[in-house]
Design brief:
The complex is a heterodimer. Chain A is built from 5 helices and 5 strands. By secondary structure, chain A is an alpha/beta fold. Chain B starts with a helix and ends in a 5-residue tail after the last strand. The chains are: A alpha/beta, B alpha+beta.
């Protein structure tokens, strides 16, 4: 009787396609407080600050709350998630521009949505495969996030501001549209 | 004698399941894996590692299956378990290390009697290939990351170029020809305890200096390799050093302890900011990330690159037939931990 060949993976996960991810009630930007969760990657904080400034000046956002993620590669810690959930109407996070932080940003976006907080994630276009793979791992296949061209880290401040300007409509869409 | 056709078919099956690192694996069967499990008192279902962000665990059973597939003998399994624990002691390995564009490789260092008992190479050609324990223990870690954690190239693993020898760097220390205490003893274990240490590497860079008997000159040569700007991305650029026995013995003969070597290198490894400016790396963010900055005024300031001496691992390995050593470029920071084989300190 021949023996079976053992599976070294512990059993493949099957991702459920199209699982509802988004918080049903989307954000109203007018008068809102928006959390800006930056991941310590070069230019991420400036990118998010600029988005915050544009949201205040053009979309009636009342306040922004910048928060720095403790570890760019890991999921947002429970205390930071709770803090943003309690104090913000929506969250923007990124910039996913490395092997681990792009996947992690998507995981965070999914986590915020599942906690009832509309969230927009920004990843660079060099990391869409790993970002999409993370969405699948979180049972959120097809999760939609905003993309900006790679690289981000080497841009000068004016170039970063231009990127923020370019991605703003997509961010507004993600936060406000079902 | 097994039917080669059946063996080939089983190997191809493993390829089709996407379970291999590109080389053939040994198809794992219940009876083979049970032989591995017989070499540990730990329960097969015990979780020995978790990558939080991908939500995957490694159990003793999965480690045994992957070790068998890597070509380990069952008796290597306690070393695989110790190596895995040592690797997972590294903060970067638990964080995003396996997903990183840097594509780091674990360097696994084996100390103690288990080297001879299992036939680990500690002398000529220590970085491989050619020796089953060295080659397969390192490979087992790679298969665990791929299969148990599900971190595969081009998907969750995003290495830009990777590095030659990823999942194949396992060396035994040449304790017999080292003038100093083994790495495991430096890490706090008793002499004679079999143990495994690990660190993640960006690469290895040789220093060939058969040119002088002067320890200052040899250390200067090593320091030059450690201080190259291409490797410097943060405030510090941690390194380790695998000294060939000839260099180690020359240094010891001239009165250097291992701590003296560490202190010398911490003092001398660095660059003037002018050099860093010309390479676009003279500025520092609050997070300690280097960037290009316009500040020629401080061109003469010397930036040291190594963290404290206790974070500069030095191992002696290789043959005593030429004065060569290897700078190992540490990704993250060495944990400074050695794990006893079999779990007994």
């Amino acid at each position: 009787m021949p023996e079976a060949i053992l599976d070294p993976t512990g059993g493949q996960r099957t991702a459920s396609a199209g699982t509802a991810v988004l918080t049903r009630e989307r954000a109203r930007l007018d008068g809102a407080t928006i959390g800006l969760l930056s991941n310590t990657k070069q230019n991420a904080a400036l990118f998010l600050d600029e988005l915050g400034r544009l949201l205040v000046s053009r979309h009636g956002v009342a306040a922004v709350k910048p928060v720095v993620k403790k570890s760019f590669a890991l999921p947002v810690p429970d205390d930071q998630l709770a803090e943003l959930k309690d104090s913000c109407d929506a969250v923007i996070t990124g910039v996913g521009d490395c092997g681990s932080c792009s996947a992690s940003a998507v995981a965070d976006g999914v986590a915020f949505e599942r906690n009832g907080v509309p969230a927009a994630v920004i990843c660079s276009d060099a990391f869409v495969v790993t970002a999409d793979a993370m969405a699948e791992l979180r049972d959120a296949k097809g999760y939609h996030y905003a993309k900006t061209a790679h690289p981000v880290a080497v841009l000068n401040p004016d170039e970063v501001r231009k990127r923020a300007e370019d991605v703003l409509p997509e961010i507004v869409n993600i936060l406000t549209k079902p | 004698m097994t039917d080669p056709g059946a063996a080939q078919e089983a190997i191809e099956y493993c390829y089709e399941q996407d379970w291999t690192d590109g080389l053939p694996v040994v198809p794992a069967s219940r009876s083979l894996v049970d032989k591995f499990l017989a070499h540990t008192s730990r329960a097969p279902e015990e979780v020995i590692g978790r990558i939080e962000q991908v939500g995957r665990d490694c159990t003793v059973e999965l480690a045994a299956i992957n070790a068998a597939m890597a070509g380990c003998k069952p008796e290597y399994f306690p070393v695989v378990l110790a190596a895995f624990e040592a690797v997972m002691s590294d903060r970067a390995a638990r964080g995003g290390g396996w997903q990183s564009t840097s594509g780091p490789a674990p360097l696994i260092v084996v100390n103690g009697p288990v080297r001879a008992e299992l036939g680990f190479n500690s002398t000529g050609g220590v970085f491989g290939p050619g020796f089953r324990p060295n080659a397969t223990v390192a490979r087992a870690i790679g298969l665990i990351v791929r299969n148990a954690f599900g971190v595969r190239p081009h998907v969750l693993e995003q290495a830009t170029q990777g590095l030659p020898g990823r999942w194949s760097i396992c060396i035994a220390e040449n304790e017999e020809e080292s003038p100093w205490k083994p790495l495991s003893v430096e890490c706090g274990l008793d002499e004679g305890t079999s143990a495994v240490s690990a660190m993640l590497l960006r690469t290895c860079e040789y220093v060939d200096n058969r040119h002088t008997q002067d320890p200052g000159q040899v250390l200067t040569d090593i320091a030059d390799t450690m201080a190259r700007t291409g490797a410097v991305i943060f405030r510090e650029a941690p390194c380790g050093l695998v000294l060939g026995p000839e260099h180690a013995q020359m240094l010891a003969k001239e009165g250097f302890s291992k701590a003296d070597v560490q202190a010398w290198l911490v003092e001398h490894v660095g660059r003037r900011r002018g050099d860093l400016r010309r390479a676009g790396k003279n500025g520092l963010t609050e997070n300690g990330v280097r960037h290009a900055a316009d500040s020629p005024a401080d061109d003469e300031v010397f930036d040291r690159f190594l963290p404290d001496p206790a974070r500069l691992p030095i191992v002696v390995a290789g043959a005593r037939n030429a004065a060569m050593s290897m700078v190992v470029r540490v990704f993250g920071l060495w944990s400074g931990k050695a794990v006893p084989v079999g779990g007994k300190a």
